[in-house]
Structure formats: structure tokens, C-alpha cells
Amino acid sequence: MVGYLLPHPPVLIPEVGKGEEKKCQATLDALEKVSDEIAKYEPEVVVVISPHAPVFSNAFFLNDKPEITGDLAKWGVYGVEFRFKNNLEIVQEIAKMCAQEGLVAAFVSDKLQKRYGVSRELDHGTLVPLYFITKKYKNFELIHTSYCMLDDVNLYKYGMILRKAIEKQRKKALIVASGDLSHKLSYDGPYGFAKEGPEFDKLLVKLLQGSNIRALYDIDPVLSENAAECGFRSIKVLLGAFEGYEIESRVYSYEGPFGVGYCVAAFYQKGEASSSLLEEIVQKKEDRLKRIRENEDEYIRLARESLEYYVRHRRYLDHIPDYVTERMLKERAGVFVSIKKDGNLRGCIGTIFPTQENIAKEIIRNAVAAGFYDPRFEEVTEDELDSLVYDVDILSPPEKVNSRDQLDPKKYGVIVRKGTRQGLLLPDLEGVDTVEEQLRIACRKAGIDYDSEDFEIERFTVERHK
């Protein structure tokens, strides 16, 4: 088994870059070497894991079109077209194995394409790597897939399934983890700068240069999230295909000329591993959740125990635990409870103003509401409880804002009002960096047209427990 991490900026393609691609010469040279290597390897099946294929929260997209096509028309280039035969036997086997493992492989029908605005055509995360591969080698079938937003354990298991399904068909395969690294390497780049950007890229490249694969799973999720990368999950799926074997990784190039990190790297299967990487990943997850539980304060603990009690008994916690503080019993405030699973939102419900006699009872009610009555999600089930992580925000009383200069999305949450319509957004949310972004999202939640309607604005602060 052989795998590669390949970047996917369309600017690398000369017909698109029109000379700008020369600023990425190290990447182009590395892609040339990789393409030569692939041609010598002669894979019968190429799997591309793309972050720009349809990505779902809890399902792995699998393209089930008999023939998969794409072109460069989106970038103003006509006549450059790609057409690949899909191996539907492998695709169906992947879906079958996913079901056996409790995972979901999602096919996208024509109806779903229209409803959700997604496509089964080849995305640029797939097109760019294939553009360079097919310069040297074309005699392969294509498996077009993506990752999803589940945790490391499930990403790894999906990679294991990809390999098993291919081996069952006795095919020689190559897996491409398509992805760029940090998108926040430069103030001049299209996504701005974050200090975590170069920090993440430097660490990831160093680990790959040293074939230190196991240490990849020690990288802080906050670091990778703030770096705004799109390739790490692709890598984690790829690694699952090597379960049971030691991996030698080799970095061919790394650069970031446009404020985005491009890394070309290879993964080679060596002898049998002395221990299971899957077991280590499972243990790391259990250890992390254990540390979170051990460091819960009274607010978080009460939210968690309230939801757990309701799930198991179908009634609200009928007593106030003795660890609850005097302040939680005497003061009243609006409270938001957020629940996450595998780093993804699982439910969030709150009250702007207090509705219960104290903060403790506000938490109890809103924890249950977040787990059961958030219309975006199904009800929390008992088998999920050990995987859930909680945040509790205690809101200050809202105050009217006379000028947008009084807003700061990192410090203040906002409430927008127009008649009976109302929208709220908490402060310091990932990806919400400007006042305009914050207000637009809050207006969208309220059904207010940000560009054409006047609306009132209030701000508030939160006391965050996490």
C-alpha cells in the first residue's frame, strides 16, 4: 500500500495559474517526482479523499456514479476535461463494511444534489492531484470520497475499510489524501494570519519528516482548528489504511507562497507494527475525556449530570447536588448550555433572561433542552453520554447599543431585534472575527435582512465555563 499527501490549489495548474504557478516551484517539482513514482507503481485503483467533495457531519461521501467527470471551466479554462471509470464493486463493498462498523457511507442522488447544493462532479481537491498524476499515468479506476466530521477513531476506521474493500477485489491501490495545510500563514494571504498557522505546519511537517506517525494524534485539536487547515482529516483517513503496519513517511516539499501551506509527502508500508495504532487512538480519546471529566467545575458537572439523569430516567434532576455553590443557588441569570461530540456541535439551547429561580435550575433545564429540544439535532441517546463535552455560558443582562463601535465579537455577544423577530449570537466564536460577520449571522438566525432592514442591537458578556 502506498499513499500520498498532495495539495490542491488550482493555481498549480498552468492553464489556471498563467505563470503564477511558478511561485510554487518546489511543489511543482515534488509533484513531478510523485507522478513518476506513481507511474512506476502502476496502481489499478486510485482513491482520492477530498475535503472539497461533499462533507457531512457524520457520514462519509462516496461517489457512486459509474463514470466520474470534471473540468476546469470554473476557473475559466475550457477543453481540459477529466473522465474516470468508477469501481462500483469496491464502492458497494465500502458501503457494506461501513454499515457493519456502525459508520455511514453517503451516496448523493440527483435529488439530494439539488436540495443541498452539492455535486458528484470532480471537485478541485480531486482534480488538482489527478491533473498531475495523469500527466504520467492514466490506467486506473477512481474512488472519489471525502472525510466527515467524526472523531479520529472513526476517521481511522474508515481508512481501514477503504483498504479492506480494495483488497477484497484483489486490486493494487494508491490512496491520495488531498489537502492543504494552514490557510493562515500570512497577513497578505486570502485568509489572514494566525500564529497557530505556521506553528501547526512546522509541527506536522517535522513529524512527517521523522516518520513520527503516532505523534500526529497528540496534536492539539485547537491548534489545527485555529490554523484553518483542510488536510489533517484526509491524512487521518489515509493512515487507517496502514493499520497493522509501520509507516515510513517522506516529505518531498513544503512551502506557503500565497499564505497557504502546501505539503507533498509520501507514506510507505513497512513491516508489521508492534502494536495497534487504532488501540492507541482509542486510548488517547478515553484519556482526553477522562481529563475533561476530572477538571469539570460545578457548572459543567451540573449540566452533564442533569442531561445524563434525564436520558436515563426521562425526568428532570429532582435534587440539587451538594457541590452546587451558594452563588448558583442565590443568583439568577440567562444561561446557554452547549454540547459537543467529537469536536462538533451536538446541541445548544439557552435563555437570554432567567426563567428559573436560580442559576442551578437554569442550567438543569437548559442542559436537557440542549440534548433533547435543539431542532437541528436528534435527541441525545444513552450510548453517546460518555462522548459528550459541555460548555456553560452565564449571560450578563443585555444592554442597548447606540453605535456599532461599541461591539467587539470577541468580547460581546449580540442580540438583534426587529418587531417580534430576534436573533442571538454568543461571543468569541470560531470563524466570527468581525462585527459585520457577527451581525449578519445573528440577523440570519432572526430572519432579518441585514442589508435592507433596520434593527435594534443589544450586547452582553458571558462568563464561560468549559
What does this structure look like?
- The strands form five sheets. Strands 7-2-8-1-10-9 form a six-stranded mixed sheet. A four-stranded antiparallel sheet has the order 12-11-13-18, with helices on one face. The chain has a four-stranded antiparallel sheet with strand order 14-17-15-16, with helices on one face.
- The two termini are 42 Å apart.
- With 466 residues, it is of the alpha+beta class.
- The protein is globular.
- Helix content is 35%, strand content 22%.
- The mean pLDDT is 95.
- A hairpin with a 2-residue loop joins strand 11 and strand 12 (344-350).
- It folds into three domains: 2-283, LigB-like (Protocatechuate 4,5-dioxygenase, Chain B), CATH 3.40.830.10; 296-394, Hypothetical protein ph0010, domain 1 (Glycoprotein, Type 4 Pilin, 2-Layer Sandwich); 399-465, Hypothetical protein ph0010, domain 2 (Dna Ligase, domain 1, 2-Layer Sandwich).
- It has 14 helices and 18 strands.
- Helix 6 (152-168) packs antiparallel against helix 10 (277-294).
- It has helices at 14-17, 25-41, 88-100, 110-116, 124-133, 152-168, 196-209, 221-227, 232-240, 277-294, 298-313, 326-330, 359-372, 435-446, and strands at residues 2-6, 45-49, 60-61, 67-71, 81-85, 105-106, 141-145, 173-178, 245-255, 262-272, 335-341, 344-350, 388-395, 399-400, 413-418, 421-425, 456-460, 462-465.
